[in-house]
Structures are given as structure tokens and as C-alpha cells.
Design brief:
heterodimer, A: 379 residues, alpha+beta, Butyryl-CoA Dehydrogenase, subunit A, domain 2, Butyryl-CoA Dehydrogenase, subunit A, domain 3, four-stranded antiparallel sheet, 15% strand, globular, B: 366 residues, Butyryl-Coa Dehydrogenase, subunit A, domain 1, 3 domains, five-stranded mixed β-barrel, two-stranded antiparallel sheet, 11 helices
Chain lengths: 379, 366
């Protein structure tokens, strides 16, 4: 038993680190470190830099322009990007939509979309949640009714991150309202956001920032060639897509970077002469968050190494969220009151935003429902 | 990264689980508690026969040459069955200390007998104030003698020898072997809350044999080995308490349905599972760090963090286990509450949670 990286993996990590150092613009790094979001331009620039190196899509097969890395290499790459911090490869383009098109898309869809997704020539967003369908996603109502060579789409999506600057949205839509199982009547549809009848409205979140949107569809006509895979099989593709977040689900690298940030802030507080008792309390809190994070990372290795059940993966999401929230909370308190300024206080905004990570992508409560059913056989 | 036990360890884990299920189920265990010795010499002999006591003894001294990972595997199994046997003191602490500090002759004399389960050596280091040793040793015409007291030495009264730490002029804390039957050694034996036999030891000019030179780094190494094994034992205790609880959720009915059908209890049971698996990961990481096979911790040994995290989680799991059992969990005759008792004792070994939290906070220079 060991937790040792092979020489090849060590060399690979160094190669990734060197690439990031040589290519990540310093101002982007600083903005991300200060708790800011990557902008559309940031994402475009970084995705293109990665793509140029052949690293635009860590998990895609080489035949489709991906890096073709195995799970361990993907994890190292994700961790190094987070540590920099650099943006990860475009989450919706690369981690989510790409693999679905590779596995279930038509040749025409592959030819049209994959190169553009890789190079961020188009950016896509995810249209899953609806006002009445959050955790109970399969109850979604946005309807796509076939008329000749088109679907006519009516309905509303919500919490659509980045829709305000994206080019396309991949949607789950209801194509068979009479299906016995609600999961069975859902299809996976690509919709150009410039199509007439699409309206995007901003939602300002509690951090005062704009990343979320509502997207309305009013008789939007979508060519049937934009259907991915088979009609009414969309739920299967969505499940497949969510399985591809593996390298990111626990957010280990993201939280490690925040722990490093907290330690740097602690050193500054110490230099500023804050009371020893305050410093000790922070030091202890940071150390325990780091311990929890370390245990989670080892849990992840144990799962991938056959020492723990893969069915534990909802735990990675749930615990990873709590740990990220804990460290952003400590950072927020360490930097208050300066970070409470609404104009410049990005670390308080970052803390407020962190409250979302236990809600999106399957809330902590949903993760616990899954664990209860699969690990405990209780339901 | 290889997270699998090797074949020898896997075999040991399997056969140990079988042996303990047969000889150390809760019913048997409570009989051992009631016995005068407070343990089972027969079960101890069978453990020795299985190779448990020799697993981490160097091959040169008749053992199997294992390391902290072997201690982890064994301690976890012993934690699951609330073992009353002197594995921790004799094999984890004393054998490790003798292996690190003892002379070649001392190792050759003591380690093979420990490995065969013939010799019990109690670890007598901790005192009233964590990290402070007040027992002192002086060298006279007839050799070393020790003066002072060691409280709460696990399995102290039943041991053949004590391994005692004492202050020596100009040399700091040193390690001594004391014959438990020698003059000047007095025991006040008692049971701890979990049934473990323990004793307060008074040393009044007790004759002692000094091991080699103990350095602060070596002492830390011995203690870290102990922390690792104690953490693994807590993981075993957590695992058993968790398993009992999930079983109970599937059998106990109230309001006409299984209590496990309530989401409130399901989610709390999931929290127990998460605490257990996080604790197990920390235990694995610490053992691998001690074994020198952990790139995630680098050169560091995360013993403070492990002790705090695992103790915190073990308390959570065992307390929740009792709560979710309701009244039956509060009874002496049912197993689940005994795991909390055991965790209370393990928390105290080699610095309690508060002590290690202080170290993490930088309040202690350890």
C-alpha cells in the first residue's frame, strides 16, 4: 500500500506546472486568486492556449482533438490548474457537452461542434433546471413539439450560468408528455441562443454578481438535426454527462488553493501584529480544514484505487462542498472588514458565492439521498 | 498509487477477522471483562499463533518485518471487537521503542519473545501533564534506579516489564526497561471505563535497564506510531458502531414503519458513513506517512491532524450511534455504547484531542 506518485506522473505534473507558468496571464491569476470569476475573454484565451498545446480536452480521445489522458493524469491536470489558479477547461464545452456529442452525436454534430468547443469558438451553457424542477429534475416541463423538420420549444430554464454570453445552450426538453416514467419522455437538444423567441434575463445572486440567468423559450424553432442521439433518451445522456465531472467533483484542487490563500493571509495578519489568540484560532481552523481536505483527497484515491467503494462518489461532492465553504468562510472573516466593501470586497463575494456549491450539481441533500439508497440500502 | 493491502496483509486481515468473530464476539468479550485478568490469555495466544504479535517485528528478530500499515490493519480489527488485549502497549509501543532505541542485544532478547506473544511490556510514558515527564532516573553503584509515578499504565499490572520514560540529568528523557516484579515497583490496578485493565505505577528506586539513547525525534516517532495505531483502533470502533446502527435502522419499527425510512435518520446515518470513511482515509494516510510511502504528506507526519480528526469523527459516530438506537443504546448489555467508552480511552492515548488541537494552533512547540 502506498500513496506515491510514479516518476512519470511527477514529470507530467511538472510539465503541466511549467506550461501554466509560461502561459497563464498574471492578471488573470491575480483576479482568480482574489475570488473573481473567469470572464468570457479569460475562458476564451485560456481554452485556446490549452487547445494549442493539445490539452484543450483532457478526457476526450485523441481522435477528436482531446488529450486522451487517463484518470490519474486528468486529476493531476485539474489539480494543477486549480492550484495556479487557472480556469479549468471550459466546464460546459469540454467536460459536459463534448463527451455527449462524441458518444451519442451525429457525424455532422461532431464535425461542426467538437472543433469549435475545443477552441472556445463557441461557448455553450447548460439548460437543465427549471423553476419547478430543481432537485426533481426529471419533472421538467419545457416542451419540444415536432413539426416537420423542426421542434417548437416552449418553456423556461433557470440558474443558467453564463447564458448571457454563451452562444448555444444544451437543453433537456420534454418530447413525450405521455411517457409512463417521467425520465422516459426527455430529449437532449442543442439550441442556438440567437434563435428568435429566446430571451435571456439576468439573475443577480447574493454575492451581487451576475453569473446566473433565466432563459425563456417562446415558440423557438429548432432544426431536428440539433437533437443529440435518439428522441426520449435525453435522461440517459444527462446521466452520462454528469459522470464526466469526476476530476472536479470533490473540488480538491480548488479548496487546496484556498487553503494556501488562507495561510498567506494568516502570515499577513501575524506581520500586522494581530493578537496571538486570534492567530491561534485561525491557525487551528485552517489546519482542521486542511485535514478534512486531505482526508477527502485520500478518500478519492482510495475509491479510484479499489480500497473504497466507487458508490461513495456523492460523498466527494457533498463533503467537498462543505470544505470549500469552510475555507472561504475563514478567508472572508480574516479579510473583514475591508472585504465587506461592496465595490472591492471580492473575498466576501467569494464566500457568499460558495453557498451555491452545495446547491448546484445535485444538492447536498440529494447526494445524501443517493448515498442512503446505494451505500446504506435505506430508502 | 497503490491502495491495496499486499497479499500477506490481506491474508492477515481475513484470518484475523475470522478469529475475532469466533473468539471475540461481544458475548465472549464481556466474559473476558468479568474475568480476573480482565482479558483473554487464550485469545492472546491464538492471536500470537496467527502472527499478529509478530507482524511488525523485524525479520531479523523472528517477525514478519511489517510496518505502521500492519499495525493499522491489526488495530482496526481489534477496535471492531473492543479488544482488551495488550497489543497496543506491548506490540505497538514497546516493540517499536525497543526496535528504535534498544541495543542489538536488547532487541535480540526482547523482540522475538514479544513476537511470539510470550512477553508483555507495558508502555509507561504519559503523565498528568501532557508532554511532561517527571519520573527521574539516577545511576548508582548498582545501576539505574527510577523514582516517581506513572498514572494509568494500560495493562500495567499484568505486564512482565514496563517501558518507562524518565528524566536523566543532562540527557533529557530516556527510556528504561523495568521488571514489573522488582522491588520498588508498586501497582494500584483498576479497570478503565471500557474495561481495559490499567494501573497507577509507583517507582521508588526501582532497578532499571536503560535502552540506548532516546532522542526527542525518536520519542516522537514512537508516539506517532502509537497515534497511528490508536486512530486505526478508533476507525474499527466507528465502523462497528456504524454497522450496528444501519442494521438497527433496518429492523426497528416505530409508527408502523422502519425507522430507517425516515429521511432525517437516513441523512444522519450518511453523515456517520462520511465521518467513518474520512477517518479511515486519515488513518491510512498517517500509517503510510510513517511507513515513508506518502507523497501527499511529503516528509511530514500528520499525527496531530489525524488524532484530532479521527477522535472528533469517532465521537460523532459513536454518539450518533447511541442516539439512533434510543434507549437500548444506553444499556450496558448492548454493544453499541461500549464503542463510545473505548473511544474515550483511545482519545487519551499519546495526547488527547485538545492537546493535539493546541499543537495545530501553534500553542505548543512540541
Amino acid at each position: 500500500m502506498d500513496l506515491l506518485y510514479s516518476e512519470a506522473h511527477k514529470a507530467f505534473r511538472q510539465e503541466v506546472r511549467d506550461f501554466i507558468d509560461a502561459n497563464l496571464p498574471d492578471d488573470m491569476r491575480q483576479r482568480l486568486r482574489a475570488g473573481g470569476f473567469a470572464s468570457k475573454a479569460d475562458t476564451e484565451l485560456w481554452q485556446r492556449a490549452l487547445n494549442k498545446r493539445g490539452w484543450g480536452a483532457p478526457a476526450w480521445p485523441k481522435a477528436f482533438g482531446g488529450a486522451g489522458w487517463n484518470a490519474a493524469e486528468q486529476q493531476i491536470f485539474a489539480d494543477e490548474c486549480a492550484a495556479a489558479p487557472a480556469p479549468p477547461p471550459h466546464i460546459f464545452n469540454i467536460t459536459m457537452l463534448g463527451p455527449v456529442i462524441i458518444h451519442f452525436g451525429s457525424d455532422a454534430q461532431r464535425d461542426y461542434f467538437l472543433p469549435k468547443l475545443l477552441n472556445a469558438d463557441i461557448q455553450v451553457c447548460q439548460g437543465f433546471s427549471e423553476p419547478g424542477s430543481g432537485s426533481d429534475l426529471a419533472s421538467l416541463k419545457t416542451a419540444a413539439v415536432r413539426e416537420g423538420d423542426e421542434y417548437v420549444v416552449n418553456g423556461q430554464k433557470i440558474w443558467t450560468s453564463q447564458a448571457h454570453y454563451s452562444d448555444w445552450v444544451f437543453c433537456l426538453v420534454r418530447t413525450d408528455p405521455n411517457a409512463v416514467k417521467k425520465q422516459a419522455g426527455i430529449s437532449f437538444l442543442l439550441i442556438d441562443l440567437k434563435t428568435p423567441g429566446v430571451t435571456v434575463r439576468p439573475i443577480i445572486s447574493i454575492d451581487g454578481r451576475h453569473s446566473l440567468n433565466e432563459v425563456f423559450f417562446d415558440n423557438v424553432r429548432v432544426p431536428v438535426t440539433n437533437l443529440v442521439g435518439e428522441e426520449n433518451k435525453g435522461w440517459d445522456y444527462a446521466k452520462f454527462l454528469l459522470g464526466h465531472e469526476r476530476a472536479y467533483i470533490a473540488g480538491i484542487g480548488r479548496s487546496k488553493e484556498r487553503v494556501a490563500c488562507a495561510r498567506a493571509l494568516l502570515a499577513k495578519l501575524e506581520a500586522d501584529g494581530h493578537p496571538a489568540s486570534t492567530l491561534a484560532a485561525y491557525r487551528g481552523q485552517i489546519a482542521m480544514i486542511e485535514a478534512d481536505l486531505h482526508a477527502l483527497e485520500v478518500t478519492q484515491f482510495r475509491m479510484h484505487g479499489g480500497h473504497a467503494d466507487m458508490k461513495l462518489s456523492p460523498m466527494l461532492k457533498a463533503r467537498g462542498s462543505e470544505i470549500f465553504q469552510a475555507i472561504t468562510d475563514v478567508i472572508c472573516r480574516m479579510t473583514a472588514p475591508a472585504s465587506l466593501r461592496a465595490d472591492t470586497g471580492s473575498l466576501t463575494k467569494s464566500y457568499l458565492y460558495s453557498r451555491a456549491v452545495s446547491i448546484f450539481g445535485g444538492s447536498t441533500e440529494v447526494q445524501k439521498n443517493i448515498l442512503s439508497a446505494t451505500m446504506l440500502d435505506l430508502s | 498509487m497503490n491502495l491495496q493491502l499486499n497479499d500477506v496483509q490481506q491474508q492477515l486481515q481475513d484470518s484475523l477477522a475470522r478469529l475475532l468473530a469466533r473468539e471475540y464476539d461481544f458475548g465472549h468479550r464481556q466474559q473476558y471483562v468479568a474475568a480476573e485478568t480482565g482479558r483473554s490469555p487464550e485469545a492472546w495466544a491464538q492471536l500470537a499463533e496467527l502472527g499478529v504479535t509478530a507482524a511488525a517485528i523485524p525479520e531479523a528478530h523472528g517477525g514478519f518485518g511489517g510496518d505502521a500499515v500492519d499495525h493499522m490493519v491489526i488495530s482496526e480489527a481489534l477496535g471492531k471487537c473492543l479488544s482488551l488485549e495488550p497489543y497496543h502497549g506491548t506490540v505497538v509501543m514497546a516493540a517499536t521503542a525497543i526496535g528504535l532505541v534498544g541495543s542489538e542485544a536488547q532487541q535480540a532478547r526482547l523482540l522475538p519473545r514479544i513476537g511470539q506473544g510470550e512477553l508483555q511490556v507495558a508502555w509507561a510514558h504519559g503523565e498528568a501533564v501532557a508532554g511532561r515527564v517527571t519520573v527521574c532516573g539516577g545511576h548508582g553503584v548498582d545501576g539505574w534506579r527510577l523514582y516517581g509515578a506513572k498514572p494509568c499504565v494500560l495493562h500495567g499490572a499484568g505486564a512482565d516489564y514496563l517501558l518507562v520514560t524518565a528524566q536523566v540529568a543532562d540527557e533529557g528523557v530516556q527510556c528504561f526497561l523495568v521488571d514489573a516484579r522488582a522491588q520498588g515497583v508498586e501497582f494500584e490496578g483498576y479497570r478503565l471505563i471500557d474495561g481495559t485493565p490499567a494501573a497507577d505505577v509507583k517507582l521508588d528506586g526501582a532497578p532499571a535497564e536503560r535502552l540506548g539513547t532516546l532522542t526527542p525525534a525518536l520519542l516522537l516517532r514512537v508516539l506517532d506510531t502509537g497515534i497511528s495505531a490508536a486512530c486505526a483502533e478508533m476507525v474499527g470502533a466507528m465502523d462497528a458502531a456504524y454497522t450496528l446502527t444501519v442494521d438497527y435502522l433496518k429492523t426497528r419499527k416505530q409508527f408502523g414503519r422502519l425507522i430507517g425510512s425516515n429521511q432525517a435518520l437516513q441523512h444522519r446515518a450518511v453523515d456517520m458513513l462520511v465521518a467513518l470513511e474520512q477517518g479511515r482515509s486519515m488513518s491510512v494516510s498517517l500509517a503510510l506517512a510513517l511507513a515513508g510511502r506518502n507523497d501527499l504528506t511529503g516528509a511530514g507526519v500528520p499525527s496531530h491532524a489525524a488524532k484530532v480528526l479521527v477522535t472528533r469523527n469517532a465521537r460523532q459516530v459513536c454518539q450518533e450511534a447511541i442516539q439512533m438506537h434510543g434507549g437500548i443504546g444506553m444499556t450496558e448489555e448492548y454493544a453499541v455504547g461500549h464503542y463510545l467508552r473505548r473511544v474515550l480511552v483511545l482519545d487519551q492515548l499519546h495526547g488527547d484531542m485538545q492537546y493535539h488541537m493546541g499543537c495545530l494552533e501553534g500553542r505548543d512547540s512540541d
